[in-house]
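User: I'm curious whether this sequence folds into something compact or stays loose and floppy. Could you predict its structure so I can see for myself?
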Amino acid sequence: MLQITLETPGRFVPVEIPEPTLAPGEALVRIHRIGVCGTDLHAFRGRQPFFTYPRVLGHELGVEVLDPGSDPHGLRAGDRCAVEPYLNCGRCIACRRGKPNCCAELKVLGVHVDGGMRPRLAVPARKLHPSATLSFDQLALVETLAIGCHAVERARMEPDEYVLVIGAGPIGLSVIQFARLAGVRLAVMDISEARLAFCRRAFGLAATLPAGPGAADRIRAAGGGDLPTTIFDATGNAESMAGTFELAAPGGQIVFVGLFQGDVTFHDPLFHRRELTLKATRNALPETFRGIVRQMEEIQLDVTPWITHRFALTDTPERFPVVAADASAVKTMIHG
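Assistant: Here's the prediction. I'll summarize afterward.
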């Protein structure tokens, strides 16, 4: 079968490989949809730390079960599933304490091991989350949503709390989605007016704030004179992340959703004087995936308007560079 491999930064090539074989506990799936995320874009541009080439990208997957394998976990051939791409060991202290997303030996499909830019893939059956009603588009978006949902779960916000999301890319959008469901008063800030306009159209948000000089005043005005008691930073930008300590209300909390591969510094007296709480959030939990599938089924949570670009897997070498350079792209979906 033909897979698409990122051979070096900026260069995808088609490669003929054997059909996958199943190890105990694995299921064989056909890949119908592959969502493109920031990690994929960073890898394409050669800016993804701890990344080795060649690598098969693709961890946001909507798939069909072809063979549920020897330990099917209730799966049947023909089931449509979202893939939980976090391959954890099950033995380390994080796994034993119910935090497999923090596994000491974590491998992520499409990042640490080859992912889904291929027609068929063997994956652990326990990492497949089925739905009888969701489309492959929706199932491929579950992983993006799970990251935002887990961040919101970590924050434990109160209804009507004033909350700021910084960064309106796909991960920021997933935070916004679940923050809205939590019933908070929400503002979003970004450097891109196009992304802020998308938030107004997609979510009906009135408080969409441009970043830059005077941002603190705009944030206070949106909060009726108050600073936000919860800030989610989904930028992965060190300057933005450091700046959140100036923008959080006394007694508030900061949640770093975006990852910066380096040092983030802050003014310690301010941190103590305001008695701020700083939280990191990483990936998501298995129950988060299951919960999102249920929510999408029950309340018709529809995030397909996020999909702005589409192309076929075989067109990836030509189309991916074009989409990667398109500032209007929100979510790109590759059809397997």
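Summary: The CA atoms of residues 157 and 182 lie 7 Å apart. The radius of gyration is 20 Å.
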